[in-house]
Structure prediction request, 606 residues.
Amino acid sequence: MQFRHKIAGGDFAKAGNVASSVKKVLQQLNIDHVISKRTVIALYEGEVNVVAHAYSGIIEIEIDEEKIKIIITDKGPGIADIDQAMVEGFSTATPQVREMGFGAGMGLSNMKKNSDFMKISSIVEEGTVVELINYLKPDARQESK
Amino acid sequence: MQDKNQNKDFHHALKVDNDLCFGCTHCMTACPTQAIRVKNGKATIIANRCVDCGQCYIACPVSAIDVEQDDLEMIFKFPVRVILIPSVLIGQFPRKILTSDIYDALKEIGFTHIFEVETSIDMVLDSYKQFMDEHKERPMISTFCPAIVRLIQVKYPSLVGNLLRVNPPINMSAVYFMEKLKASGIRENEIGLFYATPCAAKIAAIKSPVGEIKSPVTGVINMNFLYNRILKYLQNKRTDTGVHHTDDLTSKGILWSLTRGEVVHVSGRTLAIDGMKNVNEFLENIENEKFDTFDFLELRACDESCAGGILISGNRFLTVERLQKRALRYKDQETTQELKTKNDFQNIKINQFLDNIEPRPMGRLDENTAIALKKMERKHRLMCFLPGLDCGGCGAPDCETLSEDIVQGNALISQCVFMQQQMISQNLLSPDQARQINEDIWGGDRLGKDCNKIELEDENN
Ligand SMILES: Nc1ncnc2c1ncn2[C@@H]1O[C@H](COP(=O)(O)OP(=O)(O)O)[C@@H](O)[C@H]1O
Ligand code: SF4
Ligand SMILES: [Mg+2]
Prediction:
C-alpha cells in the first residue's frame, strides 16, 4: 500500500496534515497504537522540517505486513553538517519560525527516537532525503497490550 | 480483547422514530463518527460507532430522533423517590422563578427528596488531584462528558490511556445520598434515585457504564420533560409542599458543568473546549509531542457545555448567565454544608475511580493487518472511482465512508448515483436494477408521489 503527499514549504497552517491522515490509515489497518504513535510523531517532525526549512517536498509512505517505510524528499537548502543538525537543541530556525512554536531543535532527534531506522542524505543547495522505517514486530505489539 | 468489546451491544439513548423519519440525510451528514446510513428511506444508527452526542437530534428537521427515557410512573414503585438535579436544571428558568417554586413543582410531580448532583464536587476534585498525582500520562482528559469518553474510545483509541478515570459527580452523589438515607433507617429497596438528565450521553452512560460495574442511579428523567411539567405547575401554583431539599451548593458546583467549570480548579497548563466540532478538530490535530505539554483537558460535546445539552429547553447563553449570577451569590460558601458538618463523605465508601476504559476503535478494516492492507488498497481504488462529492446520494455520509462500507461487504458501488449512470451506459446495470437499488436506499414511495394531488391537499389545508 502506497501513499504520496505533496507539501509546500512555508505553509505552517497545513503542517501536520500528512501525519494526521497517516494516523487514520494506521488505525484502520489495526497497527499497534504504540508503533502508530511513534510513526506519526516521527512523520510529523519530518513534515514540519520540510515546511520550516525547505521549499517543497514529497512524502511517500509504503506500508506492508512487515513495516512502515516513509521517504521524505525535499527541494531546499540541504543540511551541510548532518551530525550537528542531529544534536538536540541545534536549530537554524529564524526567530519568526520560533515565534510560531517551531524550531526547538528537537525534531531530528525525536525522529530518531521514534523510528527503528533513520537515514538522512542531503546535498547542500539541492535538498534532503530522510528515510524512516518502523517495523510492525509482533513482540512489540504484544508488550503494549 | 478490544473485539470482545466491539461486539458487545452498547446501550444507546438515541433512537430513530421510523414513523417520522423521511430519510433526508441531515443527521447522516451531521454525525461526527459517520454512524448513520439511510436504508429503505429511513436513517439507521450503527451502534458500534454512535457516541450518543446528540448531533443528529439537533440536525433533524422533523424531530424524528427520540431520546429514550424511563416512564415517570416507575418512580412510584419506591416510597422514597429522590430526584438528583444538576445545576443547569435551575439555570434554564428565568430569574423571577424562585428556586423554591421549582422544588415545589418537583415535589408535586412526585419526588420526595431533591438533591443537587454537584454536592459531591469537592470529593470529585480531591479525586482528580489524587489520580493526577498517581498517573503520569499527560494531558489527562476529563471523563465528565460521557459523549467525549465514547468519542475517544471509538475515534481516538490511542488516547484512552489519557482519560482521567474519576467517577463523575452524579455517581458519587447518588451513592452518598443512598447511604445517607439508609443511615436514617430507610431500606435500600425503598429508595429510588432518579437523575434529571440534560443529554442522551448521560443516559447511555448510566444504562451501560464505561469503566464501572453498575450505576447507583435507578432511572433517568429527561430534563425537557421536567421543564414542561415544572412550567405547567407554576402556572397554577399551589401552596408550599414542604419537600426535603438541600439547596446546598458552592459556586464551584454551580459552574462545574459549564465551560471552564473544571479547568479553573486544576493546576498546570489546561484547556477547555466545548462543541463536538471543536473537540474533534482539536483531537484530530494533536498527534505530536506538543500535546504532552498540557496537563489537563476539559472537553465537552455540547456548545456551552451542559447548558447546551440537547434536553435543555432554555436558551443556553441565558442559562450560563443565570448560573454565573447564581454562583456569585454562593461565592463565600467554601464547601457544602453536607461536607462541612457531617464529614460523611469520608465515612461512606464511595468508588472514587473508574476501572479501565477499553478502546473500541471504529473503522478498523480488519483485525489482521495483512487482510486490512488488502482492504485498504481496495478502498483507495474505489475512492479514485467515486466522484468525491460527498453528496450522500448513496445513503452513506461521504464517498470515503461508502468505500469502506463496500470493502466491508455492507454496500455496493452501484449505490453511487454517478457510478450508476456509468454502469448503465456500459450495460453493466439495467435501469430497472438501478431503480431497485435506489428504492432500497430511499424507499419505494419516494419518487412515486402524485404531486398534483399533494398540491390540492396543501390548498385544502
Ligand atoms: N529538510 C531540511 N532541510 C534543510 N535543513 C534542515 C531540514 N531538516 C532539518 N534541517 C536543519 O537541521 C536543524 C535541526 O532540525 P530539527 O532537529 O528538526 O530542529 P528544528 O527544526 O526545530 O530547527 C534545522 O534547524 C535545520 O537547520
Ligand atoms: S456537554 Fe454535558 S450535556 Fe453535553 S453531552 Fe456532555 S455531559 Fe451531556
Ligand atoms: Mg524540526
Q: What stands out?
A: Residues 27 and 106 of chain A are 26 Å apart (CA to CA). The beta strands of chain A are 2-8, 56-63, 67-75, 117-123, 127-135. Helices of chain A lie at 17-28, 33-53, 82-86, 95-99, 107-113, 138-144.
